[in-house]
Design goal:
Two copies of one chain form a homodimer. Chain A is an alpha/beta fold. Helices cover 33% and strands 20% of the residues of chain A. The first copy, chain A, has an eight-stranded parallel β-sheet, with helices on both faces. In chain A, β3 (61-67), α3 and β4 form a beta-alpha-beta unit.
Chain lengths: 216, 216
């Protein structure tokens, strides 16, 4: 059983200010906060598991798992030797900066270089709330289809990086990577795109190099 | 280009009453309304396409496509000869009864026996709003994983039927069908479960028989 914190809406209404304060405070501590957003089942936890296995020795990782219910993800992450905490959002479809702060500081963060917020699985609401992260990353899995940028434009337009997961299943689904990248670039010219398979390891190097470049 | 209606939040606050009125009115017209909910990319449109091909001659189908943006789904459905209309939710993460009414009555519904509302791709918010549908159906695709009932319990607990899609990919992913069904049945003892592949046709008979049983 992982440690679980029950959260609900932050008391303050000034989320943008809270987010900015959290971002600066974490930077001073030398802690990079990455907000990971995606649909349910896109492979966030599997991507994190592989990332932890690959680089946790170089850059210590902690994971804040946000879900409506359950602690299955936090238990998986802890089994890999990384720090993890589960937060429950009281039915809410996103995390805000106050919730992120309470979750993060529920962990011992000494020596931690990268904290991932694994946001609630949802392509809509999390895009609307600044969590205080330094980088926003979206995950799209091959089985979801290459048309998702057309349907959820806000999410694709506001992220710093897009990780396209489950690339090992590309032969099985009709997923046009070039078309997908073209849709995304129309919404967000500067986004970094990393096609990966956490299963085979394909593309993980580039994603992990990007993380390390962004360390404080 | 499909016909598109731009919607925003209904004027009335009494969604439950509106939903009940819509449900009764449609029943009088002999029109079954099915609310389809799922994650983005779970295969709602592919399931509908196959269902239209299989039973549109027996029971005429219309589809109300709800999305934040784009009309790709409505265009696909129309190409199969079914009636379809696209509604945009003005960034909202769900449909309510008033929005459903406006979308539905934007179509010519004469002779239509089943109207599907393809709700916004999201496992959280749509579960909280009664759309006026007679039956609520959730779609979970094999690539999303068998642990989703643990993470999104409200959605699984409130539906009449669960369609498990992309069963043809089961050999490729670690998806334990028995474990998934067990999780679901703990939340919802009476739910009908239909494992299907719209690609191979596996299981489509049972799903379509259930639809036909529910016709008015």
């Amino acid at each position: 059983m992982a440690k679980v914190i029950e959260l609900n809406k932050s008391v303050t209404e000034s989320n943008d200010r809270d987010a900015q304060e959290l971002r600066e405070e974490l930077k001073e501590k030398g802690l990079l906060l990455i907000n990971l957003m995606s649909s349910p089942g896109s492979g966030k936890t599997t991507l994190l598991s592989r990332t932890i296995t690959d680089i946790n020795d170089e850059a210590k990782i902690a994971v804040l798992e946000a879900d409506i219910a359950s602690d299955v993800d936090a238990v998986k992450i802890e089994s890999l030797g990384a720090k993890s905490i589960q937060v429950h959002t009281d039915g809410m479809c996103h995390m805000d900066a106050g919730m992120t702060r309470r979750g993060l500081f529920g962990m011992d963060l000494s020596d931690v270089k990268i904290a991932f917020l694994e946001n609630v699985g949802n392509l809509i609401c999390p895009a609307e709330f600044d969590t205080g992260a330094h980088k926003n990353v979206m995950i799209l899995s091959v089985p979801e289809g290459d048309d998702k940028p057309l349907k959820y434009p806000l999410m694709f337009s506001m992220v710093d990086a897009l990780v396209i997961t489950k690339m090992d299943t590309k032969g099985y689904f009709t997923f046009d990577l070039d078309a997908c990248i073209e849709h995304v670039k129309k919404l967000n010219r500067n986004v970094q795109i990393f096609p990966v398979s956490a299963k085979t390891g394909e593309g993980m190097d580039a994603w992990e190099a990007w993380l390390k470049e962004n360390l404080f």
